[in-house]
Amino acid sequence: KHAEEIAAILAQWSAGLLRSPQDIQAVERVLTPDFVGSSLQPAESRLVRSGPVLEIHQNKFARQPALGRDAFLQGLRSALSGFSEIVTAEFQVTSIDAFSGGLRARVRYELVGSGKDFYREQRVGQWELAWQRSSSGEFRLRNWEALDETQSRSARPIFVDVTAHAFGSNSSYSSQLLRGTDYWRTFLDGACGIDIYGHNGVSVGDIDNDGFDDVYLCQPAGLPNRLYRNRGDGTFEDITEASEVGIIENTACALFADIDNDGRQDLIVVRTNGPLLFLNEGGGKFRQKPEAFKFASAPQGTFTGAAVADYDRDGWLDVYFCLYVYYQGTDQYKYPSPYYDAENGPPNFMMQNNRDGTFSDVTARTGLYKNNNRYSFCCGWNDYNRDGWPDLYVVNDFGRKNLYRNNGDGTFTDIAGQAGVEDVGAGMGVCWFDYDNDGADDIYVADMWTAAGERISTQQIFQKAAPEKVRAMYRKHAIGNSLFRNNGDGSFHDASGPAGVGMGRWSWSCDAWDFDHDGFSDLYITNGMVSGAAREDLNSFFWRQVVANSPNEAKPSHDYEQGWNAINELIRADGTWSGFERNVFYANNRDGTFSDVSGAVGLDFMEDGRAFALADFDHDGRLEVLLKNRNGPQLRLLSNIMKDLPPSISFRLRGVKSNRDAIGAVVTLQTESGRQTRTLQAGSGFLSQHSKEVFFGLGDAKGPMRASIRWPSGLVQKLHDLPLNHRIWVEEGTEPSRVEPFKMGRAEFSASKPQETQPLPTAVETWLLAPLPAPDCSLPDLSGRTRPLSSLRGKPVLLNFWSTQSANYQEELQVFNQVYRRWAAQGLQLLTVSVDDSTDPGNLQSLARDPNLSFPILLGSDDVAGIYNILYRYLFDRHRDLGLPTSFLINNQGEIVKVYQGPVNPEHVETDFRNIPQTAAERIAKALPFPGVIESSEFRRNHLSYGSVFFQREYFDQAEASFRSALRDDPASAEALYGLGSVYLKQEKTADARQAFEQAIKLQASYPDTLPNAWNNLGLLLTREGRTTEAIPYFQQALKLSPDHLVALE
User: Fold this and answer.
1) Which one of 383, 487, 737, 854 is most buried, counting C-beta atoms within 10 A?
2) Could you tell me if 169 and 148 lie in one domain?
């Protein structure tokens, strides 16, 4: 409560500063008469790095507050006087401590703006603010202490958005990429598989061997992934249809790799339900390899990240797949338990290349089955101990990570604990890079930093029954990302704090490159979970109602599970969860530390960033950033326009004895200023793949370069007299075959403001991929005559829900009046249902007296409105209450086939009812807005979720129908049978209930509570019949499956 009050005051500060840098009235209003504050002019300002474009200072302030109210306000205005405009003013409460009569709050602030003496300046720091209650009960600020600050300033633009220039000539850019996941969740039938998360990545690779990297973009389910060919002039051509790789199913990521060593980049498309392999046949054409991946056991979760490496050094690339478990719907979630160290996740897979375009599952044989029970998001390969064998780091959510050391004999050992890199936390991404240029690759792990989590997890009441060791692990889940420095002896130490790179917000992808060519790698992190239409963030709710209720061992917890269900439903209903978070860019200070310069360099985008790929698309010797977002715009291409950059050099490698892509090769560059090392990888960060070109910034280097390449085969090759600002093409074991200068002349791009997210649509027409029965209803019309919907079976019907509270309801009714008879003559029936409050019938009574009214208006009931509200709410992944007006087109079998959100267009309706699709292929053609490739033409609706919601709302007939539909789709569903049994139990159909539960316990359940509940209910049925002795074994079996089963214990 206190944090929310303080946050509300800080929000007023922010609003004022965004209006004007001198608008501090909101600050002035809360200062007490006896207020004392420290000077906001730094007492010490240390220059961390300087240059013609970017300058960074670390500021310290006098710790003893000495300024009274008026002097402090004057000092605050002076401190802000350099800004002509402030574009970011963020204040977050990271800790609160109460004391007698008040409280002390630690606030993290970020200010970004422009001024006449600079292009962008960012200030990031902390304040200690002491508050007290006024006589009116409001908080007033009594003491203000400035602690520390990083101040970065750019003289000119550094990165500019060139997406429209590069991709704008393609129709897919404006029709698809400018719109984010939430737009498509509003538009597309949820049966297509689209979800809230937007975990869809981006990959680059040269598919046609012209030397220019091309782009494969993964999209939300229901939209085809896109393949863009690089024209070589800074623009791209959409060749998706011709290449036949426009997969429509939900795709997490993709990897370009030469799987068959034929010199062409093949494509692994990692759909959430399993990977596909497309072999490159040349000429921009790909051919799908059937059954390319042969899993030893059926995958138990959703595929997420993947990365390739030649783990056995046989010259053929292998692939590791990560899996996760997501919320599927009401009562359909495998809860991570316990939150801080969950080991009930799905197993990942290690797949070995069979050299014939197929892969075999070697997870067990390699020893990678050990500790393979977590919630894995991504992985990264690297030979961290330089023994020549690629090792594997696996990033897991809800707990510890894995570092699998390659033993060199075809097996791996998880040494994360002994190496010091288990990194307890909410892991999302990883990158390997040598941040201090000591020749040993270090690990950066993207976890989660949240002010609410940091604040709540340190409270005494939080998880107060847990041991301190466990409480510390919960706290670790909130404090951010981790940087592990390689000690060079097989171990690592945590350098996150000293390096200053812990704050990454809700991080996803992370990776490093040398943006200013000074010879040191810098870090970029994409951020943000879900930015919803409702701006109030659910982070505090999450930490208070979910994490705080986690059991501290692996067992069920009703409150914990209810918390998870609640937050998963809230974000699908337009809630915000760690949303509106800006991406973070850390500049390497060249001394083992980093500085947050995100706003100063122009990479602090507000969208929910997911992935990014690095490539020199235009061959100018600088890496561009291709950013992939959850919301709109989905894509940003960012070009580095810094003037007078130091030189650079890059390498394109081709293996001979090694795998053709040379994945795993280590390039070491020696210059006068030191040594740099890069490893060639395929798959890193989160859902990302960068160029296979190995880039180095050269700093102050002046003369020819020397380099060495350690190929995956073990061969070490020396290269001499390499020219600056050139691309070097090297085949394993031979001298460079091509030495090509960079294109030093650059196209001029003006800096532009970030594109605005397009508003979500309010009027939408959606054909359904999976029709569902229209719930029957019998309602009276205005004359009192009852009209059952079922009486119209055999005829198409437009069922319209409306209200006199709608702004334009009279115009809409007039339209229906005009078309009713014409539609009826053509065979289309019209039923309109008013959902107005029956206690205020005024408008409806006037309609009843209208002699010109030609069509039936039915008076809705609470039950009918409630049933159709649930039906509508779960048709789309974006869960909303039934908007008014909304209409349903029903075919002659009584199935809903199309939904009209908002007023209907009568011409569209006339065309639609004459052309109702009859086959799955016809439904796909109408329901999916763009053509693409799809393996199965059958889409299934989540009837289990419908059944559970109808059951919870006590609409038992609808629940029964939904569970029967679920059983029809999957006759082996224990959950569907358990749901049916539960309905029959409520309906007192004892025999039917017993039969359903008995069938359920013979099946394998998908969720942990199903079978214990079924056994328990069989016991309850016997108890009701007075057969207590016979019931005991059923309760015992429930307890055996779930020792803490509450009902059985009772």
Assistant:
1) 383
2) no
